[in-house]
UniProtKB/TrEMBL annotation:
UniProt superkingdom: Eukaryota
Organism: Lasiosphaeris hirsuta
Entry protein name: Phenylalanine--tRNA ligase, mitochondrial
Listed GO MF terms: ATP binding; phenylalanine-tRNA ligase activity; tRNA binding
UniProt-listed Gene3D superfamilies: Bira Bifunctional Protein, Domain 2, Ferrodoxin-fold anticodon-binding domain
Pfam families the record matches: FDX-ACB, tRNA-synt_2d
InterPro entries attached to this UniProt entry: aa-tRNA-synth_II, aa-tRNA-synth_II/BPL/LPL, Fdx_antiC-bd, Fdx_antiC-bd_sf, Phe-tRNA-synth_IIc_mito, Phenylalanyl-tRNA_Synthase
Enzyme Commission designation: 6.1.1.20
Length: 454
């Protein structure tokens, strides 16, 4: 992994992504190192942990009821990613501090839900799964990377084709066909909440929504049970001291603009509750706007990287992007025979090198449009710092934390200190090399964010 050169390239007039060319404008904020990953498609790479995870999840949602879509382009319209799903105009997810824009109307999808409206309209199958790369400007640590993978799932029933138009009966009939399980599931919240998670009274009854929710929950619980039983089987095989604990999962109330009611599924793992997916009863407006008003159903979105990290015991999300044979060879043959699944055996852990960078944040008046990262008029964003570090250091950065922040009362100037942890997963970084990277980080922070290094 070679750090990017420190020299500055001018923003391109156009960019080509997976063979298609797009005009950029002042909204463009996608760095080269992120654009370079749009062609990797780890979810389709045979024997890659992300791809294996996809395969296992797909097996829980069989055809022909469910159709799989694994090749949707990551460039979508702002309309598809946000408006079609009912995101309000001022939703923070739309900000340039959180989302990679190509131009004001075009962006790198931030979630696979961007394709829901299109598939609800196509009506090619009652259920579908979409697996794809998604992009978010975010913090840097061992579980966050600007690109990760999601799987979207949805299932609909059509009021005009089920017997007597009785959706609840049709859903319960399908639920009866699903296997059962014997794990402990906590589900403490009432199904509806008047403000946060109202019943869609104009469109269906409580009994219908409850039937859909029951089908949704069982389907997802079965998926989690399968993943964790495979994870445990691998653990038992490789680790004689492995202590088998019963799987605990719980449903917690959640909010999404395009589902109501909504939930998140959490799994108790290694001493803590871990969020693995979001889901809910789809808002009827989506089906109506897609030209399929008689359909109703559920949708979910799950993080494939997060599941793969649990399944393969991967401690750092960066390793998924590695081309090191010591990583990839550990999974050879698994795509064709899932019983060969093994936990990842880390190669020797290389030493970390911590470096601090402290600087004065420019006062708003001095952000005279020369600041090409932060959104003008918005506050100085952590994600801007993260992106610059990632842009320079590539995969040699493991973690970036804000460790100190204060404002000088005399002049209102803010000082910040970030601690950067440099560590390659593949080799030992020399001190000289790390210093060089860190110097380049400082120089880019000065140049792009107009900070004053202390
Ligand atoms: C969504 O993205 C919704 N589109 C999910 C959804 C779909 C809800 C359909 C309702 C119906 P969220 O931002 O919480 O929600 O992400 C969903 C899952 O993606 C998370 O539960 C997590 O497993 C994974 N995820 C989110 N952010 C990251 C990240 N930075 N790195 C790795 N995985 C992530
Ligand atoms: Mg979430």
């Amino acid at each position: 992994v070679t750090p990017a050169p420190a020299k500055e390239a001018a923003a391109p007039q156009e960019v080509t992504i997976n063979g298609k060319t797009y005009q950029t404008d002042s909204w463009f904020n996608a760095p080269e190192n992120v654009l370079a990953l749009t062609s990797r498609k780890l979810h389709l790479e045979k024997d890659h942990p992300i791809s294996i995870t996809r395969q296992i999840l797909e097996s829980k949602f069989p055809g022909p009821t469910y159709k799989y879509h694994n090749d949707f382009d990551p460039v979508v319209s702002k309309y598809e990613n946000f408006d079609s799903l009912g995101f309000p105009a001022d939703h923070p997810g739309r900000a340039r501090s959180d989302t990679y824009y190509i131009n004001k109307d075009t962006l790198l999808r931030t979630h696979t839900s961007a394709h829901e409206a299109q598939l609800f309209g196509a009506r090619t199958s009652p259920g579908y799964l979409i697996s794809a790369d998604v992009y978010r400007r975010d913090e840097i640590d061992r579980s966050h990377y600007p690109v990760f993978y999601q799987m979207e799932g949805a299932r609909v029933w059509d009021r005009s084709t089920v017997p007597n138009g009785d959706i609840a009966a049709a859903v319960y009939a399908d639920l009866a066909e699903l296997p059962t399980h014997d794990i402990e599931v906590e589900d403490r919240h009432p199904p509806f909440h008047a403000e946060r998670n109202p019943l869609q009274t104009e469109h269906h009854s409580a009994a219908e929504a409850e039937a859909i929710a029951a089908h949704l929950k069982r389907s997802l619980e079965l998926m989690v049970v399968d993943i964790f039983s495979r994870a445990k089987a691998a653990a038992r095989q490789q680790d004689p001291d492995f202590v088998d604990e019963p799987l605990r999962v719980r449903w917690v109330e959640a909010y999404f603009p395009f589902t109501s009611p909504s939930w998140e599924l959490e799994v108790y793992y290694a001493g803590e509750w871990l969020e693995v997916l979001g889901c809910g009863v789809t808002k009827q407006e989506l089906h109506i706007n897609a030209g399929a008003p008689s359909q109703l159903g559920w949708a979910f979105g799950i993080g494939l990287d997060r599941i793969a990290m649990l399944l393969f015991q991967v401690p750092d999300i960066r390793i998924f992007w590695s081309r090191d044979a010591r990583f990839l060879d550990q999974f050879a043959g698994v795509s064709d025979d899932l019983s060969k699944l093994q936990r990842f055996i880390p190669f020797s852990k290389h030493p970390a090198c911590y470096k601090d960078v402290s600087f004065w944040v420019p006062l708003p008046s001095s952000a005279d449009g020369g600041n090409d990262m932060a959104v003008s008029g918005q506050e100085f964003h952590d994600n801007d710092v993260m992106e610059i570090v990632r842009g320079v250091a590539g995969d040699t950065v493991e973690d970036v934390k804000l460790v100190d922040q204060y404002t000088r009362p005399e002049n209102g100037r803010q000082s910040r200190c970030y601690r950067v942890c440099y560590r390659s997963l593949e080799r030992t970084l020399t001190n000289k090399e790390t210093n060089k990277i860190h110097l380049a980080v400082k120089s880019q922070l000065t140049k792009k964010l107009k900070v004053q290094i202390r």
